[in-house]
């Protein structure tokens, strides 16, 4: 028998143990670990009463955790992920084998849980096609693709991949730029594990990246909340992932910084930044990335660039998959809300989906 329970507090000790056990015993993303969810709730969500953590059980044994939040936007109730700008993939925590074997019934019971919550609209974004090597089966009949995600699989040597995929003109340009960089000094690479003592290094990177976006007039993240989010994670000694800052220097000049998270046999590439310097024009970030890919390839660690269609991601990856969203209209008010914004942005030739994400998440990004 499959049924569900809904919790409205992450602090509930029973719920905490359920999340920890499913996370520990199965291949699931750290983005939905109890540490990430707690940090997300603490920093980005003021009204904890709207948390809706759905547990799916088979014969009273938990097999799935669906972390959601009921946003109230202009009196419209929108059910969305418990998520934030620091979370790149939104998924449920799953016992993959049991859920796959009972997927139709699990989907039906989950829809029953949604009906009890009674939203006007359900909007889930950033849903990857795969969770590690497992197909993401939950509610996949509702999936609609809106972007791609990319990663580099260590099974292919990065040197061979570079030679195979890079044309001769680009190779010549890379060699010329490397020579120019070497004229400025000796190249060195450093890997730093972020902790309580050196957390200021990550804060500095976030600040620089934020300012870079502002200069380019690109809609950016809330840097203060992002500071606090990662600061909140650093203090946990029992986390099974590392916050990592990769640094490339040319003599004493910082030429490239790349922040990411190491978890199991993946490195998640999250924040790249090339500081302003005389070296910047020689594309040090490209050289740095090639070094990181080479280092992780030798350690049999995949590099996941997460979602987005930036050209460098497709250039430096040998695996790609879909990233999806789910949109379900549950009431007349939900339909009217959707139609209003759909027509509003269509008439102005603005990307509807990106704007819908901003509208739904506006409170948490202030």
Short description:
By secondary structure, the chain is an alpha+beta fold. The protein is built from 12 helices and 15 strands. It is 39% helix and 30% strand.
Essential attributes:
single chain; 366 residues; alpha+beta; 13-stranded mixed sheet; two-stranded antiparallel sheet; 39% helix
Task: Describe the protein's architecture and organization.
- The protein has 366 residues and is an alpha+beta fold.
- It has helices at 13-25, 34-44, 96-101, 103-117, 158-165, 168-182, 199-215, 223-234, 284-298, 311-315, 332-347, 352-360; strands at residues 2-7, 51-58, 61-73, 76-81, 93-94, 121-128, 130-131, 134-135, 144-152, 187-193, 241-250, 253-263, 266-273, 302-307, 319-329.
- Strands 1, 2, 3, 4, 5, 6, 9, 10, 11, 12, 13, 14 and 15 form a 13-stranded mixed β-sheet that branches. A two-stranded antiparallel ribbon has the order 7-8.
- Strand 11 (241-250) and strand 12 (253-263) form a beta hairpin.
- Helix 7 (199-215) packs antiparallel against helix 8.
- The mean pLDDT is 91.
Order of helices and strands: EHHEEEEHHEEEEHHEHHEEEHEHEHH
Give the proportion of residues in helices: 25-40%
Strand segment count: 15
* Strand residue content: 25-35%
Category by helix and strand content: alpha+beta
Number of helices: 12
Whole-number average pLDDT?
91
The N- and C-terminal alpha carbons lie at a distance of 43 Å
Element layout with pairings:
Blueprint: E1 2-7, H1 13-25, H2 34-44, E2 51-58, E3 61-73, E4 76-81, E5 93-94, H3 96-101, H4 103-117, E6 121-128, E7 130-131, E8 134-135, E9 144-152, H5 158-165, H6 168-182, E10 187-193, H7 199-215, H8 223-234, E11 241-250, E12 253-263, E13 266-273, H9 284-298, E14 302-307, H10 311-315, E15 319-329, H11 332-347, H12 352-360
């Amino acid at each position: 028998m499959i049924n569900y329970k809904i919790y409205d507090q992450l602090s509930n000790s029973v719920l905490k143990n359920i999340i920890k056990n499913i996370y520990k015993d199965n291949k699931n993303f750290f983005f939905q670990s109890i540490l990430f969810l707690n940090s997300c709730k603490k920093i980005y969500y003021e009204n904890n009463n709207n948390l809706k953590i759905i547990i799916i059980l088979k014969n009273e044994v938990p097999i799935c955790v669906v972390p959601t939040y009921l946003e109230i936007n202009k009196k419209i109730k929108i059910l969305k992920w418990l998520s934030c700008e620091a979370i790149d993939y939104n998924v449920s925590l799953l016992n993959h084998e049991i859920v796959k074997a009972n997927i139709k019934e699990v989907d039906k019971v989950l829809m029953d849980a949604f009906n009890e919550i009674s939203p006007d609209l359900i909007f889930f974004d950033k849903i990857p096609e795969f969770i590690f090597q497992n197909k993401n089966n939950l509610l996949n009949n509702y999936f609609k693709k809106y972007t791609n995600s990319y990663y580099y699989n260590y099974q292919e040597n990065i040197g061979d991949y570079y030679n195979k995929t890079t044309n001769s003109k680009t190779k010549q340009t890379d060699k010329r730029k490397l020579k120019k960089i070497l004229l400025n000094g000796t190249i060195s690479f450093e890997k730093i594990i972020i902790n309580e003592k050196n957390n200021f290094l990550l804060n500095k990177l976030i600040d620089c990246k934020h300012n870079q976006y502002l200069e380019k007039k690109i809609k950016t993240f809330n840097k203060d909340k992002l500071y606090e989010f990662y600061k909140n994670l650093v203090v946990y000694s029992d986390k099974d992932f590392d916050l990592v800052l990769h640094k490339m220097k040319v003599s004493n000049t910082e030429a490239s910084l790349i922040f990411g998270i190491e978890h199991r046999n993946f490195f998640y590439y999250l924040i790249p930044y090339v500081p302003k310097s005389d070296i910047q024009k020689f594309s040090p970030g490209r050289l740095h990335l090639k070094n990181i890919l080479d280092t992780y390839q030798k350690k049999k660690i995949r590099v996941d660039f997460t979602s987005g269609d930036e050209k460098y991601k497709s250039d430096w990856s040998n695996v790609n998959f879909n990233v999806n969203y789910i949109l379900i209209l549950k009431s007349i008010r939900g339909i009217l809300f959707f139609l209003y914004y759909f027509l509003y942005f269509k008439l102005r030739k603005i990307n509807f989906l990106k704007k819908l994400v901003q509208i739904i998440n506006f409170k948490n990004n202030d």
